[in-house]
Amino acid sequence: MTQIGNLGFPRIGARRELKRAVEAHWRGGDAATLQATARELRLRHWTLQREAGVDLPPSNDFSLYDQVLDAAFCVDAIPGRYRALADADPLAGYFALARGHQRDGIDLHALEMTKWFDTNYHYIVPELHADQAFALRDDKPVREYLEAQDAGIETRPVLIGPVTLLWLSKTTDGSDRFALLERLLPVYAALLRKLHDAGAGWVQIDEPALVLDLDDTMRAAYRRAYAALADIVRPKLLLATYFGALDDNLELAASLPVDGLHVDLVRGREQLDAVLHALPAGRTLSLGLVDGRNIWRTRLDDALVLARYAVEARGADAVQLAPSCSLLHVPVDLKQEKALDPELRGWLAFATQKLDELRLIADALTDADAAEPSLAEARAAIDARRQSARVHRADVAARLQAIRPVDAQRLSAFGTRRVAQDALRPLPAFPTTTIGSFPQTLEVREARAAHKSGTLSDADYDAFIAAETASCVREQEALGLDVLVHGEFERNDMVEYFGEQLDGFAFTKLGWVQSYGSRCVKPPLIWGDVARPAPMTVRWSTYAQSLTDRPMKGMLTGPVTILQWSFVRDDQPRAATCRQIALALRDEVIDLEAAGIGVIQIDEPALREGLPLRRADWAAYLDWAVESFRISASGVADTTQIHTHMCYSEFNDIIEAVAAMDADVISIETSRSRMELLDAFVRFRYPNGIGPGVYDIHSPRVPDVDEMTRLLERAADRIPPAQLWVNPDCGLKTRGWPETRAALQALVEAARRMRAHTPVTRAA
Fold first, then answer.
1. Where is the Cobalamin-independent methionine synthase MetE C-terminal/archaeal domain (predicted)?
2. How many domains does the chain have?
3. Which residues fall in the annotated binding site for L-homocysteine?
4. Looking at 45, 101, 109, 698, which residue is catalytic?
5. Which residues, in sequence order, are bridge partners of residue 5?
């Protein structure tokens, strides 16, 4: 009988229990309480998966913060500056790596954070050097395997593979990270032996880097790594690839001396026949048949065709059924969404339902007649969605068809625009601003919840938001910021807020997904054509502008980011959906300008995230992504200043596309990299304004004036000072007011020091 495996399960809990436990610990709660919650969640998830019919649920897919950080901690890849704390208090050291530490005379920056392949999940970047030594510091994979075993559940431990781990890391001295492989492999061998001795029959070893464009160094690293692990006493190894097809790496993957191979047949459906021919006899083949990254029901008839084809080719005992990748990227359980539109609900499958889908495919392989009623029900749901009159709108299609090249062009080149903007809106050298949001306090969250539940009237809620906005404007004036924001107190989330006001979107109540650490988001569901029925942000932006003589930024989330951070419909090209969103935002930008808002920020933190994993596919994506941004931004006069913001991104490979967006000012996250990310802008000679973040808002650590000044001096050494703006790394929503005030006071003072030491004329 064909087995069902799972590559990973959401760790946060159906009601974000992990988030609450972790944040309680950060506020001073004891470690034992946190670990007890973690154990309870692991047991709950293993039990749920076994009850759903999963034969081999994963273990060690759970993390208190991030699985890459776990792997680095496990192999003792801990930079020296953290080591004393990690030795004295391992949990404190672990969290210091993730979010910094500023207490008891210890002041540590957090490690860099960036996106996990092309997802919105952020991982902590391990920091290595040429003399790096590795050791088996932590046996977490063994402990969690034994924990499940004690509960009577046999699991398949998950490890990030050694080559992918090195690829995800950075070296601080410019050395070759893959030269460290021979030092790393004995640690993997020791860990695999321990898992074997504990009784593990299989280990899932994740190597998603195998779906990338590999150079000779990485190919050689794969051969060395798995040759070294071939002859030791160890469990069977399932080599897991996902997020794309193996393509030209298939021969390499099939040649590695492992016991099984997992392939993604959602993003790489076309590879199955080649995989069946390439994989040696006797190897287990795991088929990724249901989408681990989206929430639409699986077309089970199609998945069943692939499963039957593989079983006929290799035999039922040599085939496993699985999601395409870890279910980390989808919410836990659709059953919680009782208020969701019933028709739409019938089109969806969350993590728990995806396991049910796999069970149904397995049952159909064994007894097609018995499974037919359930298959017919699934078929009817797919057909209902395809035939629904609610999905497509003629007016949206007509507007999309009418887009012209001029709609994606500003009236004048940047140099002309800058002269017009400086004449209308004179600013000092090193102008200061923030990225948009200010602290969302408990009072703000409680007021929003009360309003949503109906216990706070519209009038009282509006009065509360007005008061918070006015207070925020006064705070910024007192701090001395040059370009202000309204604080976004009316907004629940930078994507959800807009989706709630756009046609074609739907929302869950408990559809939470982990973004990083304890940060969870509820991605909207884009189920139909997108249009804007009415202005979305004009009211609060214009109210805030009425309170001050200083420029007030209108704040929007860009079309690519709204697309990337939503669960997107899969019945039309993503480019078409993105252009629909861009047209809706274009209307908003024009309305903001007409209302007197002369500075408008259109955030695109997800532009780099959406880049396809294979370079051959980049140009097509960047063409429509950049065009979509420009459509949203190009309906305004030269005097209107368009800003954008980008989160943790490697800009070297896409700097031409970033420049092609033609924003008047771009702000980027650079503080964790100590301004290293600016190097791409230096080599390219980026011409427009740029605000490199001078402090990390993802950490509670507050840098002082000297530290921010040093970062600005480093930036001014790379970028002409006339182009530089001064801002935090990102929005301040998750921070508290005391640390926000302290950090922004230091930021403003650092800008003043730079003006004194580096006089700049901002004329073009």
1. 430-752
2. 2
3. 435-437, 488, 603
4. 698
5. 56
